Amino acid sequence: MSRVEKWEQRTELPMVILAVVFLVIYGWEVIGDLQGLSRLRMELAMNVIWGVFIVDYCVRLIIADNRRSWFLRNLFDLAIVLLPLLRPLRMLRLLAFVKILGRRVTLGFRGKIIVYAASAVVMLVLISAIAVLDVERRAPGTMLDNFGDSLWWAFVTITTVGYGDLFPVTTTGRIIALFLMIGGIALTGIVTATLASWIVETVSEESEVHQTATKKEIADLRAEISELKELLAQQTL
């Protein structure tokens, strides 16, 4: 196990807890539409957590065996840490919770895939609804000025239905929508592939059972034919 893997193993749960705290604070600020001193306190708390995320990224980069390779493989983490435009995407660290949940679930491979997919859908919808409300609420011509509409929009978008009754009007809102659509397509593919694999395996198992039964019946028929031949031979003699 590499030093980065050991570090991630030790810090995984604390970082997920921080991400959950970040989500609660961010959601409280956005949904409650906090202003003044209350908003400043929330922003301070989120900035402290963001600072921890930056430290975590820097530590992983420093202790990586091949820093250049690690850097290139984790450009998305770098973007989340550095780009103010992607601030809401810092909550995507919550998806690490899915990995931890998978370790605790005593199911087969397909069961874990379903758990991963369901957890990811819930988190992506919630995160996207809060994030798009944050950037759209006061935009001119906005259609997403309350959490209920934002949540409905997130559900419609991740399922790629796209009714068109609600949509973001800001650039940041459209970027969030883009990530949500890509996530929805990927998760749909995972669930579809898992379901198809289960159906194929079930049909294959049933076919094997039928083939085994057929082979036994054929063997029994051959045995009966052999017995009949012996009886006929004895009668002929």
UniProtKB/TrEMBL annotation:
Gene Ontology terms: cellular component: voltage-gated potassium channel complex
Keywords: Ion channel, Ion transport, Membrane, Transmembrane, Transmembrane helix, Transport
Topology versus the membrane: Multi-pass membrane protein
Compartment(s) where it occurs, according to its Swiss-Prot or TrEMBL record: Membrane
SUPFAM superfamilies in the record: Voltage-gated potassium channels
Positions of the Potassium channel domain: 121-200
Main location: membrane
Transmembrane domains' residue ranges: 13-32, 44-63, 113-131, 151-169, 176-200
Keyword Cell membrane: no
Top-level taxon: Bacteria
MF terms in GO: voltage-gated potassium channel activity
Single biological process term from Gene Ontology: action potential
Identification of the protein by name: Voltage-gated potassium channel
Lineage of source species: Bacteria, Bacillati, Actinomycetota, Actinomycetes, Actinomycetales
